[in-house]
Amino acid sequence: QVQLVESGGGLVQPGGSLRLSCVASGIAFSVYNEDWYRQAPGKQREWVSGISSDGFAAYANSAKGRFSISRDSAKNTVYLQMNTLKSEDTAVYYCKAVSTDGGREYWGQGTQVTVSS
């Protein structure tokens, strides 16, 4: 059974930091690309950042310079370090795993991030 379990969300003040984690089980993690998405209330889900199986990272413009994605294949985990958080970063954050051949895709259940004073 494939599972992606996110954690690390919470309430943080503007300017603060959080590190999200996504632990994958039931898949060969090393042959999956990993992405973070987010969905704010009333808005469509949007891509935030992604990291390829060989470690190439990419970011949405909203995340560049503030967020950093990384992966630890030994722990089957992908991380999203989020710094200088803004109120507009408030959303449910989801991780997604996509096999490198594009044939399989899995989503986590999401973790809530709230940026508020």
Describe this structure in words.
The structure is a single chain. By secondary structure, the chain is mainly beta. 0% of the residues lie in helices and 53% in strands. The strands form 2 sheets. Strands 2, 4, 5, 6, 9, 10 and 11 form a 7-stranded mixed sheet that branches. The protein has a 4-stranded antiparallel sheet with strand order 1-3-8-7, with no helix packed on it. Strand 9 and strand 10 form a beta hairpin. It is globular. The model has no long low-confidence stretch (mean pLDDT 96).
Give the overall average pLDDT: 96
One letter per element, helices H and strands E, the order comes to: EEEEEEEEEEE
- Using only C-alpha atoms, the radius of gyration works out to 13 Å
What share of the residues lie within helices? under 10%
Structural class: mainly beta
Reported for the largest beta sheet, the result is: 7 strands, mixed
Q: How large a portion of the residues is in β-strands, by DSSP E?
A: over 45%
For the secondary structure, the number of strands is: 11
The CA-CA distance between the termini, in Å, is: 40 Å
Number of helices: 0
Which spans of ≥5 residues are poorly predicted at pLDDT below 50?
none
Shape: globular
